[in-house]
Amino acid sequence: MSKEWPLWEVFIRSQHGLAHKHVGSLHAPDPEMAINNARDVYTRRNEGVSIWVVKSGDIASSSPGDKAPLFEPSMSKVYRHPSFFSPPDEVKHL
Amino acid sequence: MPEYKFDYVLRLADNALILGQRLTQWLGKGPALEEDMALANVALDLIGQARMWFSYAGELENAGRDEDQLAFLRDAHGFRNLLLVEQPNGNYADTIVRQFFFDTYHCLLLQALTRSNDQRIAEISEKAVKEVAYHARRSTDLVVRLGDGTPLSREKTQTAVDGLWMYTGEMFEPDEIDQVMAAQGIIADTAHLRSAWLTQVSEVLHEATLTMPSPDAWMQKGGKQGRHGENLGYILAEMQFLQRAYPGARW
Fold first, then answer.
1. A35 touching chain B per CB within 8 A
2. Comparing C-alpha atoms, which of B167, B246, B154 is closest to residue B213?
3. B 15-34 near A (Cβ less than 8 A)
4. How do A50-55 and A21-27 pair as beta strands?
5. Which of B23, B26, B33, B34 to mutate to test the interface with A (most CBs of A within 10 A)?
6. What are the residues whose beta carbons fall under 8 Å from the beta carbon of B18, sequence distance 6 or more?
7. For residues B9 and B33, is the Cβ–Cβ distance under 8 A?
């Protein structure tokens, strides 16, 4: 076992119906302690109803160098936004 | 006999206050940031519980003393906490084993007190027992990890268990106050607590690959009656300094 505890990313759901949101990271030797530590470090002010933890190393991420090919093509395609329709008067709360 | 009830509530208050104060001495020195914050949370829970008990004790005494005066203006012989909670923090195994012994007891005691026929005691216990259930879960988990960890952590944890064992008997040795409280239906009989505590502790120590000392070993006592070791004096000196030096000082 390495001397350093591995890093975990912490996701908290603030209330039922909302999605878990990334709140930060912490160190812990295993999932159980990561949950306990997340409770003690990130939910001190009544922030959550549910906690997810995942090892930081298990997250695959896009590379900053791929920004152009990944995201630029969508910048010129405003027609993908649903903002060209006028909603009927009968539809409320849209 | 209201003064018996006052003394009894004072025991609950002093246990929470002194252990809370002890744990705050770890602030900034925990073995990991996460542990540091977790201990601070436990300390804050306990000090919050102490405030509720002190407020009620002040009302029972009806002598005009509020929670601050009870916490900061009594001398060591006036304190009614168990000897266990005033024991030094030592190394992390000492702190965690002390916490495990106390949390297991505290959780069982508060569960019994939620059925108290004194409504205030039942209400405070109802609120506190949720916090303490988490404390117990955490310290139980850590005892198993430290005991069933490396040879060094196992050795230190066994030493802590052996060293602190003699302070656990006091929790279950009823004196006159405990007996009167039991007779009045304020607290369930402590004999049941002892067997439940021994069962839980032996299971956890077994899982932690540690040896449990004999339940019939010689036990220290006196804390509940106000006879304390020198440790408490140092705790009070630090905790009470401000109110002693500047009487009536407020935020």
1. no
2. B167
3. 32-34
4. unpaired
5. B34
6. B79, B81, B85, B86, B232, B235
7. no
- pTM for the whole structure: 0.89
pLDDT tens track for B55-87: 999 999 999 999 999 999 999 999 999 999 999
Residue B11's alpha-carbon distances to B5, B54, B225, in angstroms, are 10, 10, 9
Residue of A nearest to B150 (CA): A1
What does the domain layout of chain B look like in residue ranges?
A: 2-245
Write the ipTM: 0.74
B141 at the A interface (CB within 8 A)?
yes
Structure tokens at B197: 């505590």
Distance from CA of B75 to the nearest CA of A (A): 34
Question: What type of residue sits at position B55?
Answer: S
| Contact criterion met (CB < 8 Å) for B37 and A40 | yes
Residue of A26, A36, A43 to mutate, testing the B interface (most B Cβ within 10 Å of its Cβ): A36
**Any idea which fold A7-75 has?**
Ubiquitin-like (UB roll) (3.10.20)
- DSSP of B33-51, one letter per residue? HHHHHHHHHHHHHHHHHHH
Pairwise CB contact (< 8 Å): B34 & A26: yes
Alpha carbon separation from A94 to A90, B72, B78, B89 (Å, rounded): 10, 59, 67, 59
Query: What CATH number matches the domain at B2-245, 3.40.50.2300, 1.20.1260.10, 1.10.2020.10, 3.40.50.720?
Result: 1.20.1260.10
pLDDT tens digits for range B113-151: 999 999 999 999 999 999 999 999 999 999 999 999 999
Cα separation of B110 and B128, whole Å? 7
